[in-house]
Amino acid sequence: MDVIILAAGRGERLRPLTDTVPKPLIPVAGRGVLLRTLDILPSEIDRIILVVGYLHEQIRDAVGTEWKGRPVEYVSPKVLDGTGPMVRTCESIIRGERFLVLNGDDLYGQADLEEL
After folding, report:
1. pTM higher than the cut 0.85
2. How confident is the model at residue 25 (pLDDT cuts 50, 70, 90)?
């Protein structure tokens, strides 16, 4: 099953922190929120799709092309205009009918992700 993680926004409300670091990589207790989420993905997830935009190079450098044996693919929309359009940019590459969509800047509990 694929997971789509939305990590493209500018993080305007967290300025000046996000002037140099993308919001999903802002550390919480010493570790970026996105990295925490990637670490606790359910075992059913076999591919990660990251929708990136603002400061995307930093996200690509932090995550790479594989995370714990799962391939990571990147999608970079031309226009950043909301959650629905961001998910739609992945429509042509989603495999199967079931997929999970997460925000790259939200904190999740492992049990919650397992239930989803």
Report:
1. yes
2. very high
Q: Which residue blocks in 1-116 are alpha helix, DSSP H? A: 33-39, 56-63, 83-88, 110-115
Helix (H, G, I), strand (E, B) or coil at 104: coil
- Quote the CA–CA distance of 5 and 52 in Å, as a whole number: 9
Return the ∠ at Cα 114 (arms to 9 and 81), rounded to 5°: 20
**Strand pairing report for 66-67 and 70-75:** antiparallel
Helix (H) and strand (E) counts in the chain: 4, 7
Cα–Cα distance, 4 to 31 (Å, whole number): 20
How far, in Å, CA of 89 to CA of 76, rounded?
8
Distance separating alpha carbons of residues 75 and 5, to the nearest angstrom: 10
Pairing of strands 31-32, 70-75: unpaired
